[in-house]
Amino acid sequence: MRLKFLEHQILSKLIQIPIIVVLYPPMSFESVRAFFSAHAPEIEIIETAESSSTVALAAEAHGVEPGQIAKTICLRVGDETMLVVASGTARLDNRKFKDAFGGKGRMLGPEEVLEVTSHPVGGVCPFGLPAPIPVYCDVSLRRFDEVVPAAGSTHSAVRIATERLAELTSAKWVDVCQ
């Protein structure tokens, strides 16, 4: 998180007041918009007034069951960072994950996620990334013909065919959830 000092004049004195300002990279939502414009112009980004930053909120905002929300989890195994996209009701299974990737996955913190993906937690998705990151789709998504992943902000998402999601992100299918 970056600190920014704002100047404020109080009673003819200039003082600096430290405040915490979360500066989301401008490319987050716009990079997702550009991604879909270039690779899948038929897919519309849905913006909502209400937050969809959790699976429950997203399901309510988009009128789908929680399992149909495609949550994107940013993990690191050793030096490799990856994204795992799974059903909203699925949970990572440590044994399956270790078997698939050869080590224990560590979830990245909010600041690391923002740095790696340019998306804030609650808006993380495998689209419009600043640099290539391996993407894996968990088989839990295959229960649904269409899923709803975030689209770079806590107030945006897309409806996308499950197989199209994997295709657009060059994802490999894995079984790492329960």
Automatic annotation (TrEMBL):
Pfam families: tRNA_edit
Domain of life of the organism encoding this protein: Bacteria
GO molecular function: aminoacyl-tRNA deacylase activity
Classification via InterPro entries: YbaK/aa-tRNA-synt-asso_dom_sf, YbaK/aa-tRNA-synth-assoc-dom
Entry-linked CDD domains: ProX_deacylase
Domain YbaK/aminoacyl-tRNA synthetase-associated stretches: 51-167
Signal peptide: none
Protein's name according to its UniProt entry: Prolyl-tRNA editing enzyme YbaK/EbsC (Cys-tRNA(Pro) deacylase)
